[in-house]
């Protein structure tokens, strides 16, 4: 009997296990009653390519029936100030999506972007620079989050002409602002399962100002023992970024350094046209293209309607998560990534020749 059953037992032991059925959907968010109510978002199309890329977001939101309504305002970079009704709208709605605003060079004209951040106390700028599947870059495994202090430093705008031909520009660093941006960076790392926070500085030269920033970062780091903390001088940081960017995880920086580091990281990971970002404070958030939109004012791109909408589409996915609509954010992000991965529809900056509308239509087709 044993001899007869042995082959049967061997067959049973070596038979491949039946496939485990996995649910096609998972519980990602348990809403409170009323969380599904549509939200109003302030929309600033901006200058140049701004109306093209914000229009792309409007189309995609409409196509997937996202619970978002836009309150649109006409704002341009050559205005002296942000209109009061725009500020009131953002304060009421708590969330804003904006295209790029041109900032005139010189002439004493204040940047409306800086005005907006100061008025709403949007003290943290976040840019996520990462490799998109299917988009070839010089470096792989890049996934860097640059968190930049957004309200002081060289951007405080405290300048005056001492005597003709001599201008004094003040860099302001405070312990309060340094501590809260460091805390935001460590909170972000902790909540998003990030392992390392690196503070970027120039404390070897600006010993008091950047020294205060580092001191604040060290104090906050001591409260997060599970997260590794590093420090790097800004010039070495730029060199390391272009040679070995995969070593960085979350970076926390004063204002000016963060602008430089974020744009460098964006260029490494695929270009400013695909990097999402946002500005957040205690009460309000403004989402926009993550790295500086250097092509905002390029009339040729506007005329040919070939602006890349990917960065703002991904920023709007960040906005949807901020509004606690995670499934809509996932659908949008996955659709954009599938279009980039397939490579059929790409704008010129990504090596293709598609128009903005062709990319939008491709993203919409992937939503379903």
Please characterize this protein's 3D structure.
The chain has 368 residues and is an alpha/beta fold. 40% of the residues lie in helices and 20% in strands. The protein has 12 helices and 12 strands. A 10-stranded mixed beta sheet has the order 2-1-3-12-11-4-5-10-8-9, sandwiched between helices. Helix 2 crosses helix 10 and helix 7 runs parallel beside helix 8. The longest helix has 17 residues, at 175-191. The chain is globular.
Which keywords apply here?
368 residues; alpha/beta; 10-stranded mixed β-sheet; two-stranded antiparallel sheet
User: How do the helices and strands follow one another from N- to C-terminus?
Assistant: HEHEHEHEEEEHEHEHEHEEHHHH
Supply the helix-strand structural class. Answer: alpha/beta
Query: What are the low-pLDDT stretches, counting only 5+ consecutive residues below 50?
Result: 17-23
Question: Radius of gyration over alpha carbons?
Answer: 24 Å
Gap between N and C termini, in Å? 58 Å
Strand order of the largest sheet: 2-1-3-12-11-4-5-10-8-9
Largest sheet: 10 strands, mixed
Protein name: Isopropylmalate dehydrogenase-like domain-containing protein
Function: Performs an essential role in the oxidative function of the citric acid cycle.
Main location: mitochondrion
Family: Belongs to the isocitrate and isopropylmalate dehydrogenases family.
């Amino acid at each position: 009997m044993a001899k007869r059953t042995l082959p049967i037992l061997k067959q049973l032991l070596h038979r491949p296990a039946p496939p485990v059925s996995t649910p096609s959907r998972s519980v990602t968010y348990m809403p409170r009653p009323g969380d599904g109510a549509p939200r109003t978002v302030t929309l600033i199309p901006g200058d140049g390519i701004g109306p093209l890329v914000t229009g792309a977001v409007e189309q995609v939101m409409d196509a997937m029936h996202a619970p978002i309504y836009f309150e649109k305002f006409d704002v341009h970079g050559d205005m002296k100030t942000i209109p009061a009704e725009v500020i009131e709208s953002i304060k009421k709605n708590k969330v804003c999506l904006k295209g790029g605003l041109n900032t005139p060079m010189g002439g004493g004209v204040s940047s409306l972007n800086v005005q907006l951040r100061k008025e709403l106390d949007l003290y943290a700028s976040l840019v996520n620079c990462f490799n998109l599947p299917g988009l070839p870059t010089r470096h792989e495994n890049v996934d860097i989050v640059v968190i930049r202090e957004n309200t002081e430093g060289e951007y405080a705008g405290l300048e005056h002409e001492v005597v003709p031909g001599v201008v004094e520009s003040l860099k302001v660093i405070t312990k309060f602002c340094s501590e809260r941006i460091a805390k935001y960076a460590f909170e972000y790392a902790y909540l998003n399962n990030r392992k390392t926070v690196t503070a970027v500085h120039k404390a070897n030269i600006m010993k008091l100002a950047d020294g205060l920033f580092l001191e604040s970062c060290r104090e906050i780091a001591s409260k997060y023992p599970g997260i590794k903390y590093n420090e790097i001088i800004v010039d070495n940081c730029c060199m390391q970024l272009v040679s070995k960017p995969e070593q960085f995880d979350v970076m926390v920086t004063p204002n000016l350094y963060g602008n430089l580091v974020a744009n460098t990281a964006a260029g490494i990971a695929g270009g400013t046209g695909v990097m999402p970002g946002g500005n957040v404070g205690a009460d309000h958030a403004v989402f926009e293209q993550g790295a500086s939109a250097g092509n905002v004012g390029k009339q040729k791109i506007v005329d040919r309607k070939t602006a890349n909408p990917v960065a703002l589409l991904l920023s709007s996915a960040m906005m949807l998560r901020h509004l606690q609509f995670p499934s809509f954010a996932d659908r949008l992000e996955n659709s954009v990534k599938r279009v980039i991965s397939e490579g059929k529809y790409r704008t010129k900056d990504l090596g293709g020749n598609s128009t903005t509308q062709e990319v939008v239509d491709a993203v919409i087709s992937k939503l379903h």
